[in-house]
Amino acid sequence: WDEPVVMELSAEGERGILIPEAEQAVRDAAANVYDTLPSSMRRKNAPALPEIAQNRVLRHYLRLSQENLGADLQVDIGQGTCTMKYNPKINDQLAYSPKMAELHPLQDESTVQGILEVMHEFEKIIKAISGMDKASFQPRGGSAAIYANAAVIKKYHDAQGNTHKDEIITTMLSHPSDAACAKLFGFKIITLYPDDDGYPDIEALKAAVSERTAGLMITNPEDTGIFNPRIQEFVDIVHEVGGLCAYDQANANGLLGITRARDAGFDLCQFNLHKTFSTPHNSGGPAVGVQAVTKELVPYLPGPLVENDNGRYYLNDDLPHGIGKVAAFYGAASVVLRAYAWVMNLGAEGLKEVAEIAVLNNNYLMGEVLKIKGSSAPWAKGKRRIEQVRYSWEELHRDTGIHSEQLGLRMADYGLHYWTSHHPYLLPEPATFEPTESYSITDMDEYVRTLKAVTEEAYSNPAIVRSAPHNCPIHKIRHDNFDDPERWAVTWRAYCRKHADSSNG
Amino acid sequence: WDEPVVMELSAEGERGILIPEAEQAVRDAAANVYDTLPSSMRRKNAPALPEIAQNRVLRHYLRLSQENLGADLQVDIGQGTCTMKYNPKINDQLAYSPKMAELHPLQDESTVQGILEVMHEFEKIIKAISGMDKASFQPRGGSAAIYANAAVIKKYHDAQGNTHKDEIITTMLSHPSDAACAKLFGFKIITLYPDDDGYPDIEALKAAVSERTAGLMITNPEDTGIFNPRIQEFVDIVHEVGGLCAYDQANANGLLGITRARDAGFDLCQFNLHKTFSTPHNSGGPAVGVQAVTKELVPYLPGPLVENDNGRYYLNDDLPHGIGKVAAFYGAASVVLRAYAWVMNLGAEGLKEVAEIAVLNNNYLMGEVLKIKGSSAPWAKGKRRIEQVRYSWEELHRDTGIHSEQLGLRMADYGLHYWTSHHPYLLPEPATFEPTESYSITDMDEYVRTLKAVTEEAYSNPAIVRSAPHNCPIHKIRHDNFDDPERWAVTWRAYCRKHADSSNG
Amino acid sequence: MSTTQKKTVYPYIPNSTPQARQFMLDAVNAKSVDEFYADIPKHLKLDGLLDLPAPKLSEFGLKRHVQKLLNKNTSTEDNLSFLGGGCYQHHVPSVCDEVNQRSEFVTAYAGEPYDDHGRFQALFEYTSLMGELLEMDVVNVPVYDGFQAAATSIRMACRYTGKRKALISGAINPDKLKMITTYCQADVDIHVIPVDQKTGGLCRASLKDLLDDQTAVVYFDNPNYLGVIEDGEAICSLANEAGAVPAVAVDPISLGVLAPPANYGAKLVTGDIQPLGMHMQFGGGHAGFIASHDEPDMVMQYPSRLFGIAPTEVPGEYGFGDVAFERTSFEKRENGQEYVGTAAVLWGITAGVYLATMGPQGMQEIGEGILQRNCYAKQQLSKLPGVNVPHFDQPHFKEFVVNFDDTGKTVAEINLALQEKGIFAGHDLSADWPELGQSALYCFTEVHTQNDIDTLCQALTEVL
Amino acid sequence: MSTTQKKTVYPYIPNSTPQARQFMLDAVNAKSVDEFYADIPKHLKLDGLLDLPAPKLSEFGLKRHVQKLLNKNTSTEDNLSFLGGGCYQHHVPSVCDEVNQRSEFVTAYAGEPYDDHGRFQALFEYTSLMGELLEMDVVNVPVYDGFQAAATSIRMACRYTGKRKALISGAINPDKLKMITTYCQADVDIHVIPVDQKTGGLCRASLKDLLDDQTAVVYFDNPNYLGVIEDGEAICSLANEAGAVPAVAVDPISLGVLAPPANYGAKLVTGDIQPLGMHMQFGGGHAGFIASHDEPDMVMQYPSRLFGIAPTEVPGEYGFGDVAFERTSFEKRENGQEYVGTAAVLWGITAGVYLATMGPQGMQEIGEGILQRNCYAKQQLSKLPGVNVPHFDQPHFKEFVVNFDDTGKTVAEINLALQEKGIFAGHDLSADWPELGQSALYCFTEVHTQNDIDTLCQALTEVL
């Protein structure tokens, strides 16, 4: 499809929908409704929204949807760290039910016992999986849960009078939000780099801890897929100086039912329901980040918590020492519903199967990828990985001049995702693949076959890779429009203003 | 997508879904359940269905869906006579409600008052639109309603003892089912051809009628879009010899609120809800053909009818003279629900707007199409059309050697439908376009622009048209596999048997 | 302030703006739309507007209006239901809904094998999957419902044999028999084979009496309308020996555990695919299939479209198209076979999704689970005082007859009392099957738990 | 006969077949999966299985289980609801549901602008449509909710001005204030401007007292939490004069009739798009927007992603990408602005569909209809004995405070009684707003008919 920007579809007078008009008696009663309004509060000109008939709006967005690659449509193992797994349709169906979709959050608790029960039961599940004592589903994303963990760490130390504790330690391969969220609370960030084997450097940690250490916020395995075997030592070292340890469990998919955050001594942790618990990514949310903590930290949780009093569920907002609110109402309850349904379908054996197959798939995939000329999996040589692998195309780049990013654009031509990695690149020419448990051997072989074909092109015909994409909805974008304030345009109105003469419309 | 046949996706042992297992006590009670079964009734080998995990099944069908051009996705005016109009999503939403989807047809009437009321109210609407006295929604398609009309004609004459009436008159440009369904009841078919102006030939009708004439089954306007101005004379002529007249209203979209079947004297008529009343075509059904008749013919209708007794709706199957059943239960009630919602949204003014804009659009489109070199609209020269036009590319074919069908394949390359016409081609190189009320000026202009581009290719580069499609999911199909019993294959198992060596699988 | 004076612009009609209307009128040089209706005689033209209810112009108003109507219904999600009789409550896998609600399939129609490749492939896959379930090589694009399929199979058999005598098992849905009678009236002589009251199956002795060398077809349902699994092999053998076509209607969901009729001699197999992934929709989820072996003489009798597979110009690529199209009324009008039109394609696609999702093991397990639940239900129900299961010793699939004569109550009374307890009881047979007394047809599928069956028994105990 | 002994093969896990597992183990030369966990110390490994409830392995069993739980809820489709307070019942156009349930959008995530072109374009269109509604040139990719947007706007203003004093209107959702307080604790000094009890609006005199040249931002909601439309121009002028950033949170659905804050001097505008096409979902339908003029110094303060449009190598073609990405924590970790992560993109796409469907006239009509209904409801409610509308003379949009002190009953009692009549009454303010006595916040939108409002009044009459 060669679909214009929606503003260009406007045709004077067309309507997409009609609005329920107030009855005559209501309109009569409100004849003077504008009179009490300060005149500056009355809108003078109608907003310049487009005027489009309903089927044209629909056609537009359906076409855009077809120009998008959902995980449902392809073998989505190229977005490593994102844990692109199958999002069962039955869970969506249940979430679309009016008994979920049409609930107002301020309804009397007696009228929402069902969803409260789901939240309470799912909290039990999270407790079992993490070993923690209490969980909150308030945060509306993984980073928001990291934020909430940082807030709890801050609040805890404030409550203890630990005003000197103003440093948070994290690692370079933990998610950027671990650093950024801690910073929000005024913490100084100390970032550990991996050692030569790719493990977080324990010596660096020892050097970093002090009385000022408020806490450790760390992923394990990191996005390399390498499990840090000395994780408990890390925790102990931080505990010794009175710091709290928060486990960023964004990469938990290979560990369900295998090992628990609490067992390694962590005080807090967080899970991304849209990754590990199979709820849809929704193009980037809505989502839920679960925050789970030990008994000692329960007083500091955000409110409200779901409690059960003799079979009656209620929302407990009586948390005088808590961090308060981290989101409107209770986060995304329908996401919790989906995750609950997913776990209830699998049970304990199923969750373990998830973890084991995710890991087995990943190691199988690694074997196949490493057969491709130009690839490597640096660090922890010869070791197995957990649920993903950070690869490097350093050799391919040296041989052909092709960058990892260019391979990705060429993969897009074949209808497959390919993600390099979060910046900064500690490894040269990185790429990260994570097959999860949702893909079959055939699927993985298909992905690898395509990847191999693309790398062979890099060797035999680098020009075609360098000039990719060729077979996408659009061609190479001129990036100089994105960083120059004179030229960037975040809305159509800005574009028309700045590029009036070059406009296509 | 280059998607294999579903059978090729099988991987041993994979499951797409798990089945609710009977409880232990139930299984115990049924330990000998197979013993009473004649051994020849027990299946020996599991059916050779593929074994596919759920997300792979889904991916397969989602990809196939993307390789399909629904009316939602494009400007679907190339399927003339099909009345491809917008199918409002709200109507689908309502039909998916469990209060509709999960009703069993044999529930007690007291538990289905809502849907019965919808059917009863919609019958009133059909009565208003057609002028008839009673309607049945039993037939599951337009042709099924034609069938039901033929059955009523037969039954009526049987009841009158008119055993000599064994001929049905129809026209060559009425739907083939008008002829075929009448034939089913043993009627001899007399087919009138259009006169030189494209109107059904009234002289031929006069010559055809006789004591043997059981009825007339006719479309108006025919698929040419030309309204037969002498329609009432046709009816009168047939009535004079004691025949019944059935109005095939497949092309009613331009006539809603303009003229009614009853007014022209018809005894029976039928509407296609999936055309005129905007219910989805569903790739070819489910659908509903409404059968509507005059008071005199009510006793012969199929059962049951929906009746109202003091506000209580019930199903009346006490029709001793009726034609009995024409479908299981009550036809496709959820289609009736959608059509009801569509009419209730528009009202009388809206329906008239539908008709007028459908006709206006069609005449606008005709003006634009006829500007294209090589096109013509034979018959009724210079006259307006109702809701569609049968065009001819005779001149273009003469100039370029390109057939209408080849233009269609090339249009497919541009993502647009194009339909020649029902066989046989009374006109050389026919094509039929019907814009309905659902497309805007911009949409029609876009279609015409593409059509013009294709015809220009026919003149400038006929080879590219002749070898189309180039840009479709697949390339030209080798048609010799479809008519030779040695080679045709209606199932994968037949294909594998007949083409074992050439199989791709 | 109010907009009521202005002309309504309809969201579904882009060109309903005054601007667009005028632009087009100008473009075609017309003064008003009346010009386009010049061919319609004045006296046939409607004066004023149709007499219709005031519209609900806003989508919200419409939604609320229709929802209010629908809320007058009580569905099988609200109540526990044991209704069967031709329409069945089964679990609809979520992937079936996901696929058949895809806009691309919902709004497609009659595109060509190139632009609508996906639809053609999905339908070919449907027939292929059904072919495996039925062990037959030819399956049609769906017809309206199982009734239509049965009626057509009888006409096909008559054309195939050149004879016009049809023997039809009486253990059939009475409405289906009505449909067949009307459909076949011109060319077929229908004879009904009585039901053996003891077994609830077709009376074999009567069949032998009726069967002769003029017989074109022996048609029966298996399992039959009363839920009894017939000895299909015995019946088909008799038919085949007499040179008649054995035509069997089968519930496709039974075929994971029951033999496909092809294996016991059937030459035409029909049925309804509603159980394979379709919601009941008050009877709107039906679609019929017809299957046979790949015998050209039989294939040429199909009125339906048949989609075949073929290679394209590109090696390794498949395309799809109509097989032997010239059979059809589309091609030959009254000289084609019967007639063909828009029927129930979306349900065919859906049944394909269903079978691909279920796989061989799913079909086997669901069949076995249904057999088990019926077995358990038969035992439990017949323990209740005054309740009898007349064909207790027969094998049943999905449903069986329950007789209440000894309770002194009518089925109508019992069902009403159960309805007040939130149970849709078995379908009342007393009107159509007086010879069964006060009997009802109870249906049990994989959606019923042991607890559901026990709940029914408990409720019956309280009611009787 | 039974399959219970066999290993479960999970439909969501293709390689859970024993064959696949063994094949892969062989391929990587491993004896068992334990090898992959070699890095996990033994004592950290879980012994045995997690303590979880028995699973519902079949999709049907799962569906029935969850449906049973959900059926314990009473929804706003079951009851008439007048709840607002930050989450609003509006009509969701069917096209919104159709688009946001598309598998391609639901299951997409972080693809590139080429393979996920559609998602980028849909989001750019969302920000463009919001830009027109707000008359501002910069709008972000949605953040979590309006709370987050408000909190971020305050931090943005502080960074922009280099100051740390924030004045926040007290007429704000108390939870939102809590969120802001926590979020801003490290770098912002929060001062709350009291509410003028007479008008229900921000107390202008207090604002003047608090405002000084150290003030970074004056933040207020308009309409405010109590439904009152503030005189935004007056407030923004004061802020601008003092060199503070006026930051306004607005209900976007009001902007067909109310002036966009940019027009009365606001420099940062935030809000929640839940009203624009999102179902309430027990509070799960929220997403926040932040908007400003296209001033580079302000743009660089955004923590969120900003999607820009750019030409491609092919003339006439557009592409989309991240504007000024180096602001973000994705790029600069703790040195980026605040933080960014997965938030609520699907709701942004949906709000775009909503605005494109509504168009200028739809937005104008819905706003006006809401004003009218509130006006009517105010009049009708204040006629009831003992019922007062304390800010009757103020302009209200969507909601207003209703006081029951003179009835001698508590809001809790009244609401319970109304609930028994199938009505969710206005949100009880008595705990959070003791100064308002026994008051509740009643909300009226386009989903309410005159009859609904009259029904409420009638029920109140019976209850009081």
From TrEMBL, chains C, D:
Keyword Oxidoreductase among record annotations: yes
Keyword Oxidoreductase found: yes
Biological process annotations from GO: nucleoside metabolic process
GO molecular function annotation: glycine dehydrogenase (decarboxylating) activity
Keywords: Oxidoreductase
Residue ranges constituting the Glycine cleavage system P-protein N-terminal domain according to the UniProt record: 12-459
Enzyme class: oxidoreductase
Database matches in InterPro entries: GcvPA, GDC-P_N, PyrdxlP-dep_Trfase, PyrdxlP-dep_Trfase_major, PyrdxlP-dep_Trfase_small
EC number from the UniProt entry: 1.4.4.2
Protein name: Putative glycine dehydrogenase (Decarboxylating) subunit 1
